[in-house]
Write a structure and sequence with these properties.
Blueprint: E1 7-12, E2 17-24, E3 28-36, H1 38-42, H2 49-71, E4 80-86, H3 90-107, E5 111-115, H4 116-127, E6 135-140, E7 145-152, E8 155-161, H5 167-177, H6 184-194, H7 218-234, H8 240-265, E9 270-274, H9 281-294, E10 297-299, H10 303-306, H11 311-322
Parallel strand pairs: 1-4, 4-5, 6-9, 9-10
Antiparallel strand pairs: 1-2, 2-3, 6-7, 7-8
């Protein structure tokens, strides 16, 4: 007997992407629409929260309509409406949450609030139909760097986290300092794919004695800024590609070594990556090589599922739906929501 199909309309607006998707049984994406604001924020060197929320208001209706049309589903055929309610920019989150609540009320559909980071982890379930908990996961994005044990669907144990900057935040700040602009991570990745020696400049890697799975990236960022200041004072020419590649190597080495250590020490043979920085080609290559060496199976989604999207929210929401999780119309945006909080 075949499993009954559960169809979820999902909405994501936590930062600067307005996204909607229709997902079936947490793994089958019927449609996914993303309206990005990168061009809008580029001239400011980063996301401007007020502009982001205003743009979400402009785009959300058309994005949701397009997602439904592409899926061939009416709202009446969807079993629930899911929405990211945290963490993220409060104004951006509020647009998605208010829209989802209105739709759920008007269409008499259950409402499911989804944690943004749980969505990133769940993107792996879309990309890899065979993947199932338990496994270890490296969550690495502009706002988060976590090492997590995915104990079951929606159940997490945090092993380690960044003590300061998230990895993606460090990429953005360094890219800005060396004149690459925004968004920093993709620009550094693109430059270093064809240029730059990753071993040209030895940058430090933080070791936290009492917390072997924790990260710290502010020291690497400061070392890059100090290098640039010294070069400016002494009149030395800076090889931008070497600098970017060396910085990237230092960050990626920390991510890879700690992820492998956590996976081995907790007895797992499966490691997944999630979040925007998981799209970085150097991180993928280095993690692939390390996992092959250690006999660990590595999973990560295609780049479009690493960056913010609503398909991943629909995937995470399916498992919440199956557990009977429902939210009321009092659901509110929670910009500082921690992973695992309900």
């Amino acid at each position: 007997m075949s499993e009954e199909k559960v169809t979820i309309l999902a909405i994501e607006s936590s930062c600067d992407e307005t996204a909607a998707a229709v997902v079936e049984n947490g793994r089958n994406v019927l449609s996914s629409v993303i309206s990005t604001q990168i061009a809008l924020h580029k001239e400011y060197g980063g996301v401007v929260p007020e502009i982001a929320s205003r743009k979400h208001i402009e785009k959300i209706t058309s994005v949701v309509r397009e997602a439904l049309a592409m899926s061939g589903k009416e709202i009446s055929e969807c079993d629930a409406i899911a929405v990211t309610y945290g963490p993220g920019l409060v104004g951006s989150l509020l647009v998605g949450v208010a829209f989802a609540k209105s739709m759920a009320f008007a269409a008499s559909k259950p409402l499911i609030g989804v944690h943004h980071i749980e969505g990133h982890i769940a993107a792996n379930f879309i990309a890899h139909q065979e993947l199932a908990p338990p496994f270890c996961c490296l969550v690495v994005s502009g706002g988060h760097t976590h090492l997590v044990v995915v104990k079951d669907y929606g159940e997490y144990e945090i092993l380690g986290r960044t003590r300061d900057d998230a990895a993606g935040e460090a990429f953005d700040k360094v890219a800005r300092a060396i004149g690459l602009g925004y968004p920093g991570g993709p620009k550094i990745d693109k430059l270093t794919r064809t240029e730059g020696n990753p071993l040209a400049i030895p940058f430090p890697q933080a070791k936290i004695e009492d917390a072997p799975y924790d990260f710290s990236f502010s020291g690497i960022k400061s070392a890059v800024l100090n290098y640039l200041n010294h070069a400016q004072m002494t009149g030395e020419e800076v090889n931008r590609a070497d600098l970017a590649a060396s910085f990237q190597h230092a960050v990626v080495s920390a991510l890879v070594s700690k992820a492998i250590l956590a996976t081995k020490e907790h007895g797992f043979k499966t490691l997944a990556m999630a979040g925007g920085v998981a799209a970085n080609s150097y991180l993928r290559a280095q993690m692939d090589a390390a996992c092959k060496k250690e006999g660990i199976s590595l999973y990560y989604p295609e780049p479009i599922l690493c960056t913010d999207n609503a398909a991943m929210i629909g995937a995470a929401a399916y498992y919440e739906y199956k557990k009977g999780v429902r939210h009321g119309l009092d659901l509110n945006a929670m910009p500082n929501l921690k992973l695992g909080e309900r």
